[in-house]
Every structure is written in C-alpha cells, then in structure tokens.
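Fold it.
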Amino acid sequence: MALWVLLVLPIQKVQSQRGDFSFGLAPSYKANGYGISFSVNNYRSATDYVHLSITAVFSNEQPDATVEFPYEDYLLNLGYFTTILSRPNRGLFMYFGGGASTGYEYINKGETDVVYGYQIPKSGMIYGGFASFEMDFYLTDSFSLFVPIRGFYHLNSNLNNAILLVGAGIRCYLK
C-alpha cells in the first residue's frame, strides 16, 4: 500500500501542473504607444494549445514631422501554438504559434481631416494574421509569468500593415 502511494503522488503532481484552460492578461509596449491583451488558451496536449485573444492597441501615427494623430486597433485573434522548448524541472516553457487576426482600426477619433496637406485615412475593419513567440515561467502550479512577443500583419490596414507588441503578464491555469 505504501509503495502504491509513493507511485501515485508524483503522477498526480505532474498532472496537476497544467489544466485544460488558462487565462492571461498582458500589457505590452509598442513604438509610440501601448497595448493590452486578454487571452484564453485551451491545451490540447502537453505540447500544444489553441489560443483566443482580444487585443487593444493605442498609438500615434506620425507620417511626417508636421502631422501626428491617434489611432486604436481592437483585434480578435485565433491561433495555434506548439512547444519549442520545455524545461519542466526549471518551470520554463517556450511556445511559437500564429493564426488569424481581425478587428477594427479607429483612426483620429473618426475624423478624416486634411492636416498640412496630408489626408488622414478612414477608420475601418482590418484582417490578416499574427505570429507569436511566448516564454512561460511558472511561479506556482496555478500561476505563471509569461512574456509574449507578437507580430501582426493586416492586409487592408490604412496605416501600419505591421505591428509588433512586446509584453509581460500573468497567466492563471484552471485545473
């Protein structure tokens, strides 16, 4: 009986380190602005997961030295991630993934004025894809610190087709 207990306890501990779902919140930095992302991950196995996130980006566009105007991107992202490096005994995991991204680009509070000869573009829907590299550092069985580096490319954006966000946040695992 004692031998059975000694064998079962380590197995339960290994299985309890990661649940089927995790929720994360990560503020991030962008050139001339900032962003915030809320994500939900559904772990399909020990090495991969499906990712759903809502991201908001707030920034200023400066096409030349005389013109500057604010814009906001609100994005919904759906992707797939896989493990590229794992060190469970040290609590370190690295993931790479990507997928589809769609949202709304809100430019200059909806105003399309001409400023110093520059026509400010119209707000509108955007779509494209994203790629992401994430490092996950386990703090406890239920919480981890994660560092996402996300690149977005939106095919029909009126401003920046490419956006890079670098952040750090907390992830909570459900058991």
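Confidence is low (pLDDT under 50) at residues 8-17.
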